[in-house]
Each structure stands twice: as structure tokens, then as C-alpha cells.
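Holo prediction. Input below; ligand is iron/sulfur cluster.
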Amino acid sequence: MNEDKCKRCGKCYHYPFANKIKRCKYLVDLDNGLTECSIYDERLKKVIDITPEGHPVLCLMREKTKFWITGCPYNKAVWLRNKNGKHEVKL
Ligand code: SF4
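Structure of the complex:
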């Protein structure tokens, strides 16, 4: 994925967890309003959480998460899923 278009909003660092949306513990808020990952170079496939059922939550490339996130330039039309037209992460 070409990351040049990323707005560094941090929205994709949130994930469904036990019927809620949880924030990744490695997401850092910067003073300028942007975000960054504190383990960026080693993040992919890292276990970032364990579900209540004991399943690992892995860090994935944005294009593999397949979530429609408002304002994200990497959204793909095929990720539009529910009756309202979007499988959207609300923050
Ligand atoms: S949601 Fe999109 S624009 Fe925001 S940080 Fe993730 S990839 Fe970048």
C-alpha cells in the first residue's frame, strides 16, 4: 500500500472488541493533532490484544482490515456492507 495518502488520523487503530470499539495501545497522539504508531516498523502481525475468548488480535495492513472508515482515502467500495451502505468504524 502506498502510504502517502494517509492523513494519520488514527481511526484505523481502533478495532471491534467485545461489542465495543477499542483503541490500539500502541497508538500515540501527537501535539499537532496527528497520530503515530509507537511500534510502526515491527507492527505488522504483532499480537496487539487477546479477545475474551482467547483469540489473538493482530495488527494488519490497512488494506487488509476491510473496514469503511469515514474520511480514509484507502476505503474501497467493496467494503460497503450493511443496509445503510457502510461497514463503518464510528469513533
Ligand atoms: S484511517 Fe486511513 S487516513 Fe486515518 S490513519 Fe488509518 S489509513 Fe491513515
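Residues 7-61 form one domain. That is the main takeaway for now.
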